[in-house]
Amino acid sequence: MTIKYKTIKEIKKMISQKEISNKEIVEEVYKLIDENSDLNAFVTLNKDSSIKKAEDLDNNPSDSSLAGIPIAQKDLFCTKGIRTTCGSKILDNFIPPYSATVIENLENAGCISVGKTNMDEFAMGSSNETSFFGNVHNPWGEKLVPGGSSGGSASAVAAGIVPAASGTDTGGSIRQPASLCGITGIKPTYGRVSRWGMIAFASSLDQAGPMARTAEDCALLLNEMCSHDIKDTTSLDENIPNFEDSINEPLKGKKVGVVKDLDLSSLDDDVISVYENSLQEFVSLGAELVNISLPNLSLSVPTYYVVAPAECSSNLSRFDGVKFGRRSENPKDLEELYIQTRSEGFGDEVKRRILIGSYVLSAGYYDAYYKKAQQVRRLIKKDFDEAFSDVDVIMTPTTRGPAFEIGSKVSDPIQMYLEDLFTISANLAGLPAMSLPNGNIDNRPIGLQIIGNFLDESTILNFGHMYQTKTNWHMFTPEGVK
Amino acid sequence: MDKKTVTTISYLSRLKIDSEKEQKIVKDLDNIIKFVDQLNDVDTSSIEPLTNPLEKTAKTRKDEVTAKNLKKELLEVAPSANEDYFLVPRVVE
After folding, report:
1. Average pLDDT of the segment spanning A415-434
2. Domain presence at residue A402
3. A84 with A27: CB under 8 angstroms?
4. pLDDT tens digits for A152-184?
5. Is it the case that residue B56 has pLDDT exceeding 80?
6. Residue-range domain boundaries for chain B
7. C-alpha distances in angstroms, A440 versus A191, A231, A275, A408?
8. Maximum distance among all alpha carbons in chain B?
9. What CA–CA distance (Å, rounded) separates A73 from A157?
10. Which are the contacts of A252, defined by CB distance < 8 A and separation ≥ 6?
11. Phi/psi at A449 (nearest 5 deg)?
């Protein structure tokens, strides 16, 4: 019995039929982590306490929804007593005294947090090349990036080490690595999942979500991750449905918005044909394709690269060497303590974004950049509001292509930023969006993005699950179809 | 974007830029600002800025103590602290 490449649903069945013990599951996870150490997907492991938790479950079985399911947690979530680095040198010694609400929710549901996954530093990157702890490799090819910023989480799930991982998504950081690693991941509506205990990057965009092998597993995880949290003022106090309930609804008569002003000219022909083939799959499932217009979509990336750096420069001012994390040695005064600590502790991409943020927020430029970007942000949201009066979901490719080689884009920030061309708009508008595998190009997976209306994760998961009952792209692994 | 501007915003950000990296940073920032400058072509004259996608006012709650005081635990993870305070180099002589 092995759990490699198994879904949560399958592992739950294995546990309930006593085909495998909880301890055997966790021990296999650590064996797989060890065998796949070249991926560099994990930064910190939580071995002793995970094995203990599994033994306790073997002695006292639980009927919690995710009892015994091993999960890898992105190293951006604070975990009580377990080092939390956010991929940065400045936090390489930080052990939080509390856990993020999302972590508590998942652990209360029975998940075993086996370790913390590598990521782009402070979630700023699309290739996992900005981590202080080194590049993460894509299980589909050692020279390929896994995407970012949740690259370690995506790589660990794609390699079959764990059935599930947590991620966060500010401009595509769940969906883009899910696409590049051939797994399924969803960014919920802004406010669905508490941000308390998540290390903040851009507070009006950040949202946590699940990464797993199937849409059905994402629904199981999302059921537990969502909650109204009084500790996060942007946490929504709205009804949280059981996301599994509507997953099997027929798609007949439902409408898929196809963006007619989407510029596909920079995409390879095979990327476009993978995308168009999946649209036809939905037609054969009974859905109707409807042309919609999102005229301001092309402004998403420039808008994001004003809003996100502005919020980042403000959020990251807390890393000053005083209250937690690393402090530089022997500063001559307080100001030198701040400057040296931050200059030594942050990497180049983080510094670049802080500088852009300081620039667009500085006197004389505030209206020209920050206010302007927020105005365009409203135009982008308005486009979506109008489109969703006609359709149930909107589909686009998740990424411009499959995984690219490590080092190929890292020297040109703009090229890297354009990686998130299709994903960023959902963050700006606060909408839920998922990526799921829909093809394979030169033995590299690629994903389809399904964007939903505000608070309507259920419909996205329904579309994703129905697609996965008809296709087997989600069963492709680096070792063949499982 | 020029060297002088980068020096100013570096100080505002409390960051020191290595001299050998300075040229590349000026160039990168200049490219990024030129890239976002395309927003200026959009007519936004009557558009209210959108600061947060929810646009809902945060709910109020009863003023009750809900969190545990973590003073001891928080001071323990500080780079330098005594029983009550974070410690930093002397500010007042």
Report:
1. 95
2. no
3. no
4. 999 999 999 999 999 999 999 999 999 999 999
5. no
6. 1-42
7. 33, 42, 11, 21
8. 56
9. 11
10. A285, A286, A287
11. -100, 130
Contact call for residues A5 and A139 (beta carbons, < 8 A): no
The ipTM is 0.95
SS3 A75: coil
Residue A319, chain B, CB below 8 Å: the answer is no
Confidence band of B66 (pLDDT split at 50, 70, 90): confident
Chain B contact present for A190, CB below 8 A = yes
Q: Pairing relation of β-strands A480-481 and A207-212?
A: unpaired
Q: Which residue of B has its CA nearest to A354?
A: B13
Record the tokens describing residue A52, joined without a space: 């203990």
Place of tokens 């002695």: A59
Convert the pLDDT of each residue in B26-55 to its tens digit. 999 999 999 999 999 999 999 999 999 987
Query: Does residue A271 lie in a domain region?
Result: no
Asked if A303 is an interface residue toward chain B (Cβ–Cβ < 8 A), one would say yes
Which CATH number belongs to the domain containing residue A220 in this structure? 3.90.1300.10
Instruction: Judge whether A431 and B54 are in contact, CB under 8 Å.
Output: no
Residue A277 inside a domain? The answer is: no
Amino acid letter for position A433:
A
pLDDT by residue (tens digit) across A42-73? 999 999 999 999 999 999 999 999 999 999 99
The average pLDDT across A83-101 equals 97
Q: Could you tell me the residue range of the domain that residue A221 belongs to?
A: 8-253+432-481
CA distance A358 to chain B (A): 6
Count of domains for chain A: 1
Residue A212 in any domain: the answer is: yes
Measured CA to CA, the distance from residue A102 to residue A268 in angstroms comes to 38
Q: Are A82 and A44 in contact (CB under 8 A)?
A: yes
Cα-based angle A75, A152, A396 (whole degrees, multiple of 5)? 110
Can you state the angle between helices B19-36 and A348-361, rounded to 10 degrees? 50
